[in-house]
Amino acid sequence: MLTVSTAVLHAIALVGAGPRGTSVLERLCASVPELAADAPLTVHVADPAPPGAGRVWRTDQPAGLLMNTVACQVTLFTDESVECEGPIRRGPSLYEWAAARGLALGPDDYPSRAVYGAYLEWAFARAVRTAPPRVTIRVHRARAVRLTEAPDGRQTLALDDGTVLDGLDAVVLAQGHLPSAPSVPPHT
């Protein structure tokens, strides 16, 4: 079992690396300069699926599986139309991103889920690449299985690969669509 102690550093865990987890990571990285001055921050991202796309928006899906939102209305970035705490960090919409790569996708087209997954993977990689120098991002391709709180309020997150992340200041649950399981056993 690997135990990663973060008691002397500021540390946050994101459980889920799909669209919501990617968006939280982007906002954390954008806001770090306004948070604790010069304090290092480690962000642990836990998800067994590929970071960015997650399980739902995998890039290996058939091209015929489409989103239910047009390409120009999808973005993971902020602009002046967004009311939020923290700085504005512009980035391309899904349509703008696809156009820059020569993909045949109009602004009012419904993109495939796989194309959106590729955009999400790119956005996650961009958030990691442009993170402030005092931010360390560690991706754990594992499932979170247990979350506990210490008397001092710090959190401990156990992953299914045996990794234990302790001394966490916060844990963000950004799990998105969870697999469903029957709540009542079927009649036999």
Automatic annotation (TrEMBL):
Which residues does the UniProt record annotate as the domain FAD-dependent urate hydroxylase HpyO/Asp monooxygenase CreE-like FAD/NAD(P)-binding?
A: 13-177
* InterPro entries in the cross-refs: FAD/NAD-bd_sf (IPR036188), HpyO/CreE_NAD-binding (IPR038732), L-asp_N-monooxygenase_NS-form (IPR052189)
Return the SUPFAM superfamilies for the record.
Answer: FAD/NAD(P)-binding domain (SSF51905)
Source organism's superkingdom? Bacteria
Q: What is this protein called?
A: FAD-binding protein
Say which species the protein is native to.
Streptomyces solincola
